[in-house]
Amino acid sequence: MSIEIRPIRIEDASAFREALQSVAEERRYILTLQAPPLEKTLAFVSEVIEKGYPQFVALDGQQFTGWADFIPPEKESLRHAASLGMGVLKEYRGRGIGDALLTAVTEAALAFGFTRLELEVFSNNSAAIGLYEKHGFEVEGLKRRARFIDGEYYDIQVMARLVG
Ligand SMILES: CC(C)(COP(=O)(O)OP(=O)(O)OC[C@H]1O[C@@H](n2cnc3c(N)ncnc32)[C@H](O)[C@@H]1OP(=O)(O)O)[C@@H](O)C(=O)NCCC(=O)NCCS
Asked: Residue 55 and residue 94: Cα distance in Å, rounded?
């Protein structure tokens, strides 16, 4: 399997949305339960490209297999700190794609100039936590019972990596 990792392009928007929807439907790994409509996804990807925010995709030939992005918030005083979002399609997990995506998107985030890279992860998501620890993210705290879905509470672990 040869996986291509590259910055997102506008023509990836639909496949990105489908991948997001697929991970959202698992209901266990990300807060999103329903991917935004294509129009909104297109607007998001356009802004990412226009502003040069780091967002990478992984492709197996024509097959979209995953994504990773670091997006800063709106508030001016928080814009040095970008939040990670990522996912790999279920059937492609455990093959090094998440690792390659995080390496690429982190390199781009450092080049962009962010000085704080942060993320939130459900505390039972051991695969993601293992990946983040491998990439130097440290635990900052725990938001207890932060998510409630399908009759279950999830704690959210806050992790970050400071740069410079
Ligand atoms: C988390 C996720 C992105 C990891 O991507 P992946 O392609 O499966 O991971 P990789 O195969 O590249 O593994 C990279 C590292 O992650 C960790 N990891 C991956 N799978 C793991 C598992 N099942 N258990 C423990 N650690 C695991 C390991 O540290 C691994 O490094 P190693 O191979 O040197 O041990 C992927 O599992 C995923 O998309 N999960 C669902 C969505 C999600 O959780 N998104 C993040 C929300 S915060």
From this structure: 21
